[in-house]
Each structure stands twice: as structure tokens, then as C-alpha cells.
Write a structure and sequence with these properties.
Length: 304
């Protein structure tokens, strides 16, 4: 699976770099600030102005078509089995200064599972996130925007005492606090805007169903490119990846509990000065110990 992840990710980065360097505008810095909702998952490096509040809801419908095992091999769900979910995510950003931003994210999930003739539904909060983002460098000529990010994961979703009749649908969180550190880069090269981020996180030890559990450190990376054309429309293409090692229980490593995935997401957006919208399709291309999901997502941005 690691080889697939690296190949897909590097291929996408290469295409972005090729498009970037093939633009004559790369050496000619110009003030160009297109309006959009940004990528679906990838961060954008510019931060809010002081006192500015941005609110962004997301709506996801997710369908699981199969699973990837611990060797990265794909298999479809058994005939008659179904797994799907609907999620409403709320994201906000607030400018503390012109370079420092506070942000937060929470999610409410509705899960449905049908397995071996049994059915289960559950709903509730997932894990939440808090962020501090600081703009280190602003865009100038060939230099991109560069922003540092500090992340705290709050275990607000149910993570233990699973109900026997829910088939795991009621478990919506990891149960562990995490702190993470990363960097975000954005570069405008008309008619493209390129985004990339990377974040490394450190979970803290947690007690889950009376078992001392320590999840491995994890690495998240995202690449996105937006193409802008007339009448407020833009196209989006992004790759999102996640890698995490084996879990420890009572100090012992549990082999085969590592996880990872690569997601491909094309989308289309429409924006004006008051509201920005985006409609996206996401597909898990490769993974380890994860579901193979297809999702559609809708989001819009409103600035106060």
C-alpha cells in the first residue's frame, strides 16, 4: 500500500509542478485574488484579517463500496451488506490579528450499517478540532504564502462501550487527545491557485474499555489545485493522504493495526463576493485497514 500511496501522491505533485512552471506568470508577480470556497480538505495558507469571522458548513454523504485489508488489498462488501453515513460538519475561522487566526471544527454523524441481515443506525458527535494558524510569509513574486498551524484534537465522539446491537455504528471517535504541528503553502499563478499542507500529530495515551491504549503518531498531507475561469466558476482537483502506524495496548504493539489511505477529489465551485460554494466527489483510491468510500460533499462560505 505504501508504494501505491507514494506513487499516486508524487504523480499528482509532479503534474501540479509541471503546470506551475509552465506558466509565464510565475516570474511576473501580479495582484490577483480570485474568490472561491477553497479546496474541500486541503488548507489554504492566507489567514483571516483581524476581527473577521468566516463560517463554513459542510454536508457529506458517504457510501462504502468495500474495504482495504492490512496488506492494502481491496475486497467488495459481502452481498447484501451496506454501510453509509451522512455528516454535517461546522467549521469557523476568526482573525485574532492580521497574521494570527483561531479556528475550530466539529461534526455530527448519522451512520447506517446492514451486515449479515442485521441493521443498525446511530447518530452523534464525532471528534472535534481546534487550530491556531500564523502567517509566516506572505506571497511575493515567486514566494508563496507560508503559514504554520498548531492543532488540538478533542475526543468528543463516542469511543467505547459499543452497543451490541449497533454493529459498531455508534462508535464515532478515537478517545484520545492529540496535538499536531504543520505547515501550509499557497501559490497563485493565474489562472491556477496551488495549495499544499503537511501535519504531524502526536496522540496521547487513553483508556478505552479499560485498556490503556496509545495510538501511533500520524502524518496527514494534502495537495490541491484550483483552476479559475469566467462567470465565477472554478474547478478543483485534490489528493489527500493519511498514514498511521500500529496501536499499542497495555504497552504492547498490536501488529496489523496500522492504517492509511489516499483520497482523490475533483470538484466544481461557483463564487461571488458574498458567498462561495463548492460541490465535490471523493473516492478512496488505496488504503490499509480502512473502508473504500465514495462520497459527495457540498460546502459554502459566508464571511461576517
Amino acid at each position: 500500500m505504501t508504494g501505491k500511496v507514494l506513487f499516486i501522491s508524487l504523480a499528482f505533485v509532479f503534474l501540479c509542478a509541471y503546470a506551475c512552471f509552465s506558466q509565464e506568470q510565475f516570474t511576473k508577480f501580479e495582484e490577483w485574488n480570485p474568490v472561491s470556497a477553497g479546496p474541500l480538505t486541503t488548507w489554504t495558507a492566507p489567514v483571516c484579517e483581524k476581527g473577521q469571522l468566516i463560517v463554513q458548513p459542510f454536508f457529506f454523504y458517504n457510501h462504502t463500496r468495500g474495504t482495504f485489508n492490512d496488506e492494502g488489498d481491496y475486497s467488495v462488501l459481502p452481498e447484501g451488506d451496506k454501510k453509509r453515513s451522512f455528516a454535517e460538519q461546522f467549521f469557523f475561522q476568526y482573525g485574532l490579528t492580521n497574521k494570527l487566526e483561531f479556528a475550530g471544527q466539529s461534526i455530527y454523524q448519522q451512520n447506517y450499517i446492514e451486515q449479515s441481515g442485521e441493521k443498525a443506525r446511530a447518530r452523534g458527535m464525532g471528534d472535534s478540532y481546534l487550530y491556531l494558524r500564523y502567517c509566516l510569509l506572505e506571497e511575493e513574486k515567486i514566494r508563496p504564502f507560508i503559514t504554520g498551524v498548531f492543532q488540538v484534537k478533542v475526543p468528543s465522539g463516542k469511543y467505547q462501550h459499543a452497543a451490541e446491537d449497533k454493529l459498531g455504528a455508534d462508535l464515532m471517535g478515537s478517545g484520545a487527545w492529540e496535538h499536531g504541528y504543520g505547515v501550509i503553502v499557497t501559490k497563485k499563478i493565474k489562472p491556477f491557485v496551488f495549495h499544499a499542507d503537511a501535519l504531524y500529530s502526536f496522540p496521547l495515551s487513553a483508556r478505552i474499555d479499560d485498556v490503556k491504549t496509545l495510538y501511533a503518531n500520524n502524518f496527514t498531507y494534502d495537495f490541491g489545485v484550483e483552476y479559475f475561469f469566467s462567470r465565477g466558476f472554478n474547478l478543483l482537483c485534490e489528493i489527500n493522504g493519511f498514514i498511521q502506524g500500529d496501536t499499542q495496548e497495555e504497552g504492547d504493539r498490536i501488529p496489523g493495526t496500522d492504517t492509511g489511505y489516499v483520497v482523490f477529489a475533483p470538484g466544481i465551485g461557483w463564487s461571488n463576493d458574498k458567498i462561495q460554494t463548492l460541490f465535490c466527489y471523493q473516492r478512496v483510491l488505496a488504503g490499509t485497514n480502512c473502508d473504500a468510500n465514495d462520497s459527495v460533499a457540498l460546502t459554502f462560505v459566508y464571511t461576517f
